[in-house]
Amino acid sequence: MTAILLSWCLISTLVNRVVNTSGQYVTDLDNRGWIEDINHWFSTVNRLETALSWNPLDVDLLMRLARLYRWRAFDQRLSPKLARESHHLAIRYVKAACRRRPSSGLAWATLAVVKAAAGHIDQEMILALNRAMALGPWERQVQHQVVLAGIQTWNRLPTNTQHRMLEIVDRALKDSTLSRIVIETAIRHNWQAPLEPLLQNNQRLKRLFKSIDVEYKKEH
Question: Can you give the pTM of this predicted structure?
Answer without folding.
Answer: 0.88
